[in-house]
Amino acid sequence: MYPELEKVGGLQNAIDFEFVKFNSNLRVLRESNLDEFPLNFSLIKNGKKFSQVYIGAEEKLYLPDFWKDGVCLANGHTKNISELIQVIDYWLCNEVTTRELADKFSFVSPNEKAFAFDDNKEVEYTWNLILQDKFNTELIEFVKIAIKDEVLSKLFPFTSLYTLCFSRCTGYPYDTEDLPNVTPKQFENFVPIKEKKSIEEQDRNKFETLFVVTKNRNEYLGEGNAEEALKIVKANLLDNVQPARKGTADG
Hints:
The chain is α+β, with helices and mostly antiparallel strands. The protein has two domains: 3-118; 122-235, no CATH class. Helix content is 29%, strand content 22%. The protein is built from nine helices and ten strands. A hairpin with a 3-residue loop joins strand 9 (211-215) and strand 10 (219-224). Helix 7 (140-146) packs across helix 9. The chain starts with a helix and ends in a 16-residue tail after the last helix. Residues 32-37 and 187-205 have low confidence and may be disordered.
């Protein structure tokens, strides 16, 4: 299905060959220990942005993704390697938004979160996404008050299983060092929120959700209800915590 790849010895060579034809300065990032093998995956980087390219196994398709500041913002698919090169060059060599990328190339589909990142509203967007998460309802009581806190709401939230974590940056890998995290405590008398709704009006305090606060996922800091847990979190933040910035912990 890919005669253009067979002709030059694989995907990496084919992409570089097309970059040359297109007068682009971009080249595939090559790992020395992988150069001997014709890979069906390629990585192209430029500054804070990169694209990964895969190929379809059952249908001829080039499948690029589009990353910026540690976040995957869009995916695409095309059968034409020349179109592939044009879209990657446009994304990596120009300061364009995901909207502009999708408007120029119809085969690019922005991810749901892309426009929030385009508009520098990714922190607010992600807090609301967690608040509305139907599969992590145990965290809702804490999230409801944390999202209104002037300090904590400016950090970037993410979940790891049932744990709510915070980051100083909005891209992966996250910057979580020395930041507290919050996990619902599971006791024999603990009633999950989804079961609690039918009885909470009868005795609100009796069925209160408890949260355990730790640092770096292993240092115990304390526990309590949502308000108490928030106080513990804030007491263990470093002074002058700044709002989460774009980028990754590596940066």
